[in-house]
Amino acid sequence: MTTILTSIQNPKIQRVRRLRAQKKARDEEGKFMIEGVRLVEEALRQNALLETIFYAEPAPARVRTLLDDARAVGIETIETAPTLIDAISDTRNAQPLIAIAQKRDLPIPNEPTFILILDEIHDPGNLGTILRTAAAAGVDCVLLSPGCADPSAPKVVRSAMGAHFSIPIYELNWDEIRTFFSSRPEIVICAAAVEDSENFWLSDYTKATALILGSEAQGIGPDAAALARRRILIPMTGRIESMNAAIAAAILMYEVRRQRSL
User: Fold this and answer.
1) Could you confirm whether domain 11-102 is CATH 3.30.1330.30?
2) How far is CA 68 from the centre of its chain?
3) Are residues 12 and 5 in contact, defined by beta-carbon separation less than 8 angstroms?
4) What does the pLDDT read at residue 1?
5) FRET partner for 117 with CA separation of 20 to 30 A, picked from 100, 123, 140, 224?
6) What is the mean pLDDT of residues 158-183?
7) How far apart, in Å, are the Cα atoms of 210 and each of 8, 99, 108?
8) At what angle do helices 124-137 and 245-261 cross, to 10 degrees?
9) pLDDT tens digits for range 36-76
């Protein structure tokens, strides 16, 4: 007989709620919450390390197939009352599927040629969208400076739509970032800036390249500016002073990809 979780005081439910709400809990456990059928399907497809899947009945055929696939590889599945799914969900319209995933540092290629450095991207939605685009554009790894949103926060994970399982993402301080590039002098570091910059399409990205992108409010900080060997900008007309960080990142990443496809 299947045991159904029905109490919000259940330790398993309380644990998921902590992982949803607290960066400290995610860091201490090395785990995070993922939510939704598409995202859990992608996690399974990418062989992510899933510990537990919580689901509510009645489960549609697509979810039943997913649960069977999860059980086949030893992942725990727990039927949960719909009201509890609502209680642990990070969205207003709760998805019928929530899972706990293990954080995993994917290896950086030995000779990366396309790196993205994000400088104080505070907004979780922007960060997740940038990570999703980076995975689509073929970025080798993403380095997050201090001040960025927590990459394992639910909104980031949801917006990234599986990028966490396919692209290396590292939170580093600026000393660590400088050390990373000191051993890779062949990489040309380009920072999206405003002053003393050239139009982004005039730069050559066919060689090993790192792009630095700052927040739309503050731009790049002094550490990022000092690291850059080249400054680039996206020209804008009209009276708009800044562009959404996720859109700017997409434009720059796909210019790199465009040049390398010629």
Assistant:
1) yes
2) 27
3) yes
4) 47
5) 100
6) 97
7) 46, 33, 14
8) 10
9) 999 999 999 999 999 999 999 999 999 999 999 999 999 99
Amino acid at 49: L
Spans of all domains in the chain: 11-102, 114-261
Place of tokens 């690291």: 227
Residue 245: CB partners within 8 Å, gap ≥ 6?
121, 123, 126, 130, 213, 214, 215, 216
Amino acid identity, residue 156? V
User: Which two tokens mark 205?
Assistant: 């990205």
